[in-house]
Write a structure and sequence with these properties.
Helix content: 10-25%
Largest sheet: 8 strands, mixed
Number of strands: 31
Radius of gyration: 30 Å
Structural class: alpha+beta
Number of helices: 11
Strand order of the largest sheet: 18-19-20-21-1-24-23-22
Distance between the termini: 95 Å
Mean pLDDT: 83
Length: 552
């Protein structure tokens, strides 16, 4: 062959290869189509029981079978084709089954906790191996490699496996993620940063020994970077039969190769959200976080990764969710917003959405993943617009509530309220004398504690002299956040036909959740706990337009 011609061919091939590799990967809008729906009638003993989220699609004697955790103590097996229940295992009624993994009739792993939800370090029962007849073949004690404990200076008491069902089975190992949050404090605090704990703990079922990872600390967390501690991370299994960790705040998924103790980071971000910014202060729950990432599942049927994204109902008015798709190499493929169906389990041939229809019936939707013909960029923009509209609607409602609340407006006229969650106690100096005295005594005896929390006190009186005397006589001069009403304006704006008893206004995350004058019988049982502690236990009723707290 002519050397010039050969050189031209080689250059052409090289040029084509370079051009092909740099071509942007096409993105799609996905959807799930239901091509078959089946209803499974539950056996009498399973009716009324809660179907736990730990489910498995297995093959027994050549037939597809659903293994369901029913009511925390039963493993119920239903054949898909017939819908009939073929077997039942009572695991242990004295424990709560959180996790199960069926390998064969002689090898079924179950993870349990005691009825109080905790684990037992001295006499562990958390992990067991049972057979088809429910016989306990082995109880795995909590034995951790002592050399690893010494090398990484771990306290074994802080490494008790987690109390939830978040276990997976990989390459003959039981993998658990996270440890109890009270072991390291709130995420982002100095305590949590200086007390790092393993990313994962694995139990080698052949050695009957736990191993801890040298990889510690939550990804990218530094002191002062506060994220909700309640949901620390999700744990699932990759296509490589390795654990995948997903942090709610991170746009990446982390695959842990425990065989060489290395972690591979996979960028896996939703196009619908920007960076999930940290909170301004430590928090156990994520009321102020606009969205968070959920678990990463590998869909064997379609050979794609599916990761969920949740949009906070406190920010958007209602909980919305979406799905992010990637190929086996974690290359982004596209998204689906506000999906109707939720993939529960899959094998190489089918993908199922399983949900309980009523106390006696389970609905199984057979799903087909499809690429729609919708324009990807326009779709993402439209979803962002919907989310922004929902968010703005919530903000407008918050502003309307706050602007329509006299006590909030009055405090803001004299003080700068910087907190999004706070309480306002209005004292009118009238009404039930005993009610007001009990309230004032509680304020006085708890003045050192309450003076440090976001509690604003409005004192309403007919004159400045009367107000000052009222404050001196009742110990209110100890409080820093006292707002003085010297013209009895708040009495005139009370808008109530009831006695002017102490009034409490609670603002939670910028929303007025309570604005009420308390009846006499509720001062000790309801008003005072609201001032000094959590407010989750109050019940309300409407009466003549006024919200009145009633006893339980």
């Amino acid at each position: 062959m002519n050397r010039k011609l050969l050189l031209l061919i080689i250059l052409s091939v090289a040029l084509f290869s370079c051009t092909d590799n740099t071509k942007p990967k096409e993105k799609f809008v996905y959807d799930y189509e239901v091509y078959k729906t089946q209803e499974i009638l539950l056996a009498d003993e399973d009716r009324g029981k809660f179907v736990q989220t730990c489910r498995q699609l297995i093959n027994i004697d050549g037939k597809d079978v659903l293994a369901l955790n029913m009511g925390f103590c039963h493993l119920s097996f239903y054949e898909l084709e017939s819908g009939e229940k073929i077997h039942d295992i009572l695991v242990d009624s004295s424990y709560m089954m959180r996790y199960h993994h069926f390998i064969g009739k002689d090898s079924i792993f179950v993870g349990c906790s005691n009825l109080h939800g905790g684990m037992e370090l001295e006499t562990p029962q958390a992990l067991r191996l049972i057979d088809w007849d429910g016989n306990v073949k082995k109880i795995y004690g909590y034995y951790i490699d002592q050399e690893e404990l010494n090398n990484y200076k771990y306290d074994i008491n802080k490494l008790i496996p987690p109390q939830n069902y978040n276990f997976i089975f990989c390459r003959g190992n039981i993998i658990s993620c996270s440890t109890r949050s009270d072991s390291y404090g709130l995420l982002g605090t100095k305590e949590s940063v200086e007390n790092p704990l393993p990313l994962g703990i694995r139990m080698d079922t052949k050695e009957n020994k736990y191993h801890v990872s040298k990889h510690r600390k939550y990804a990218y967390i530094k002191e002062g970077m506060y994220y909700p501690t309640y949901i620390l991370l999700w744990l699932t299994k990759s296509a490589n039969d390795l654990p995948i960790f997903r942090y709610p705040y991170s746009s990446s998924a982390f695959e842990w190769n425990f065989e060489n103790d290395s972690v591979i980071e996979h960028y896996y971000k939703s196009a619908l959200v920007d960076t999930i910014m940290p909170l301004t202060s430590p928090a156990e729950y994520g009321y102020e976080v606009p969205c968070f990432y959920g678990e990463v599942k590998y869909d064997e049927c379609n050979q794609v990764y599916v990761s969920s994204i949740f949009f906070n109902e406190n920010i958007y008015g209602e909980m919305k969710r979406g799905l992010i798709f990637a190929d086996k190499n974690f290359q982004y493929l596209g998204e689906m917003y506000d999906n109707k169906y939720w993939p529960s389990v899959s094998n190489n041939e089918m993908l199922l959405d399983i949900r309980k229809k009523n106390d006696s019936t389970i609905t199984v939707n057979y799903l087909k993943l499809v690429k729609t013909d919708r324009d990807y960029d326009k779709y993402i923009d439209s979803c962002k617009f919907v989310l922004q509209t929902m968010k703005q609607r919530v903000e407008d409602r918050k502003n309307a509530l706050i602007n329509g609340c006299p006590s909030i407006n009055f405090v803001k006229s004299q003080m700068d309220i910087k907190e999004s969650t706070y309480k306002i106690l209005t004292l009118y100096g009238e009404g039930c004398i005993g009610c007001e005295q009990v309230t004032l005594q509680t304020l006085y005896y708890n003045r050192e504690v309450l003076n440090k929390v976001p509690l604003y006190i409005i004192v309403s009186s007919n004159s400045a002299n009367e107000l000052e005397a009222y404050m001196r006589n009742n110990g209110l001069t100890y409080y820093d956040k006292v707002v003085k009403d010297t013209t009895a304006l708040m009495k005139k704006m009370a808008n109530t036909s009831f006695l002017l008893n102490p009034r409490l206004t609670i603002v939670k995350d910028g929303v007025v959740t309570l604005d009420t004058i308390y009846q006499a019988q509720d001062i000790e049982d309801k008003l005072l706990p609201q001032i000094t502690g959590p407010d989750e236990y109050t019940k309300y009723m409407l009466d003549d337009g006024e919200v009145i707290v009633v006893a339980k």
